Amino acid sequence: MGILELLGWTRPATPAGSAAAADTETVRKIVGALDRLEPARARFIAAFAYLLSRVAFSDMDISADETAAMERIVQEKGGLPEEQAVMVVHMAKTQNRLFGGVENFLVAREFAEIATREQKLALLHCLFAVSIADGSVSSAEDTTIRKIASELLLDHTDFIDVKTGYREYLAVLKEPGTVEPGGASS
């Protein structure tokens, strides 16, 4: 096994267009934890949870509030029991911390292939919901959400339309020196 294979940059030969060819290592690990679900649904939930954690980790820290928001969103949107949602979020956070730089685009591209336009827009709302869990949308979170929207092949106007609903939480628009919930000053 070569170094590129150890890093996950090459894959064993699989038929083009197959579900296995599109899977990333990150999504495969989370799907394994969801083995009782239908495989397509498990892939969707795995990619969804990973993208939520990507936004939460965009400032290099995932707060307890962001984790709770992700767990609630994965439970509600994924239709999972609480224990399973907690496990999926934990795995997504771990995978993001370990492989985020390599996997970010790949997971977003995979989600783009399996999600409908409505699901992609709903994901954008969920990404903002995670980012406001600690009181505001930081510049790093905003940039990451914009990048994900682009990777999902959504128009910039789609991103702006969703972002407008969270305008009051944008850190860049808050007055300097105001105190955000949780005591952090912006």
Explain what this protein looks like in three dimensions.
- This protein has nine helices and no strands.
- The chain is mainly alpha-helical.
- It has a single domain, classed as TerB-like, CATH 1.10.3680.
- The longest helix is centred in the middle third of the chain and has 33 residues, at 82-114.
Number of helices: 9
Task: Determine the CATH superfamily.
Answer: TerB-like
> How many E-type strands?
0
Helices and strands: which structural class?
mainly alpha
First-residue to last-residue Cα separation: 49 Å
Counting structural domains, the number is 1
Mean pLDDT: 83
Strand content is under 5%
* Gross morphology: globular
Question: Could you tell me the radius of gyration in angstroms?
Answer: 17 Å
Summarize the structure.
With 186 residues, this protein is mainly alpha-helical. 65% of the residues lie in helices and 0% in strands.
Attribute tags:
single chain; 186 residues; mainly alpha; TerB-like; 0% strand; disordered N terminus; disordered C terminus
SSE order and pairing:
Blueprint: H1 3-6, H2 19-22, H3 25-33, H4 39-56, H5 64-78, H6 82-114, H7 117-131, H8 139-151, H9 156-164
